[in-house]
Each structure stands twice: as C-alpha cells, then as structure tokens.
Write a structure and sequence with these properties.
By secondary structure, the chain is mainly alpha-helical. The chain is 53% helix and 9% strand. The chain folds into two domains: 168 residues, Orthogonal Bundle (Ribonuclease iii, N-terminal Endonuclease Domain, Chain A); 71 residues, Double Stranded RNA Binding Domain (2-Layer Sandwich). The longest helix is centred in the N-terminal third of the chain and has 22 residues.
C-alpha cells in the first residue's frame, strides 16, 4: 500500500489522515449522521469509526482513540453542566453518582445500539470482527465518545452540546428519577442532616382486608412526632418510600413546621 500523503484537503492534509480513502465505511453513513443530527467530513468520520484492530491491519490508518479521548471530556462537561443546572438541591456526591451512571459503558453502549445503530459502521480488524466486536459494549461505548469528539473537532462546542443532548437527555431523565430515589429514605436522612434535624422515623398503619392491604406511613421528626410526610402503598417499604419522598419535598421547600437546630 503506498503511503503518499494526498493534498486534496490543501493545508489541512495531516499525516494521521493518510490513506483513509482506502478505508471506506462498510455501509453508507447517511442514517448514522441523521441520528447524530450533524455532519462530519468523510475522513474524520472514518477515523471516528476505526477500531485499533483495523488500523493495525491497515498501516497508516488512524484509529478512533484520540477522538474518543476528546469526546469523553466533551460528554463529561455537557452531562455535568446539565445535571448541575437541573438539580440545584443535590450534593456533589449525588451529582457524581448520577453522572457516573449516565456516562457508564452500559448507558453509552445502549445509546450506540438503540439510537445510532452504530455496529455495522465500525471498521474492525478480521479477528475482532469474527469475535463479535461490532456488538461489544466496550467498543460501542468508545464509538459514541469518538463521534462526539469528531463533532467537536468539526463544529465546536455548541453543536457538540446539541448532539450530546440529542443522544443522552433520555438517559439523564432516567437517572434523575432514580436519582434521589436512589432511595427517598436515604435522601431524606441526608436532607434532615443538612438541616440540622434528627433522623426521621416512620409510624405505620395498615387498613383493608388481608388480600388487599393498604399501608400508610407517616414520616415523623423529633419527640413531638411532627408529621412531615405521609404516603401509602401496597407494602410497608412502598408506603415508607412515598412518605419519605413527600417529606423530602416538604423539607426542601421549607414547607414544614420544623425549625433546624443550625
């Protein structure tokens, strides 16, 4: 294979983009770019989809790892600023947990499969391809980051931000509902401590026939037993979680007859 450096792209021809013409994508890229909602020049797109196993078999071809490195940082920034703005009441620890879940291999590979259908586009070496590389979560996760990186290189942060939102906002909504509900009871304890209050307790009542019992939980504070939240459910745990959620919101808005102890 000749290693001449084509100068089609004028002054922008750089060594890492040599021979990309020899690596056309396995399938036309229209649907992928439509799913991303942006354009990426062919050379850069090929780089973003080239696994190191393919580059190893085709010397002179760049793999996606530099773009992935960049895309990882862009993704982390956009997710962080989004969570920061959306959840003013959350601690750094809670935000970090949500971010970790949102940008996890599991989350990103799901986006690659369900939103981008990226598998068929990936350029893999023979061994990796035979080994099912196009559906490996670790590779699919990398590809999402590399495509975000390529978008940033070509269009800058604003367009990259739009692409990240298009891909990940659904995931952010999911982790947000799991967020404080990491467990409302835990969140309520944290909130009470922040306000200088003691740990809430729960008073339970059961009503209804045995085959259809309804549990009512009241979250109470202090010796006076001030009720700060009430919830019902088909089990003790569900009722307590509902009461904890109501109590958390009450404490969060200051809508309770309780004073903090500073």
């Amino acid at each position: 294979m000749s290693h001449h450096h084509g100068t089609r792209s004028g002054e922008f021809a750089t060594p890492q983009h040599t021979d990309t013409a020899s690596a056309p994508l396995p399938v036309p890229s229209g649907a992928l770019l439509e799913a991303l909602g942006t354009t990426i020049t062919p050379d850069l797109l090929v780089e973003a989809l080239t696994h190191r196993s393919f580059a190893h078999e085709h010397p002179g071809t760049a793999n996606y790892e530099r773009l992935e490195f960049l895309g990882d940082a862009v993704l982390e920034l956009v997710v962080t600023e989004t969570l920061f703005a959306a959840h003013p009441d959350m601690t750094e620890g809670q935000l970090a947990k949500m971010r970790a879940k949102a940008v996890s291999e599991e989350s990103l590979s799901t986006i690659a499969r369900n939103k981008l259908h990226a598998g068929p586009y990936i350029l893999l070496g023979r061994g990796e391809s035979d080994d099912g590389g196009a559906d490996k979560s670790s590779i699919l996760c990398d590809i999402v980051e590399a495509l975000i990186g390529a978008t940033f290189v070509e269009h800058g942060i604003e367009t990259a931000r739009e692409v990240v939102h298009r891909l990940i906002d659904d995931t952010l909504r999911e982790v947000a509902t799991e967020g404080p509900a990491l467990d409302w009871k835990t969140s309520l304890v944290v909130k009470a401590h922040e306000l200088g209050l003691e740990e809430p307790r729960y008073r339970m009542e059961v009503s209804g026939p045995e085959y259809a019992q309804v549990f009512t939980a009241r979250a109470i504070l202090g010796d006076a037993g001030t009720v700060i939240g009430t919830g019902t459910g088909s089990s003790k745990r569900k009722a307590q979680l509902a009461a904890a959620e109501a109590a958390w919101h009450a404490l969060d808005t200051g809508d309770t007859p309780v004073c903090g102890r500073g």
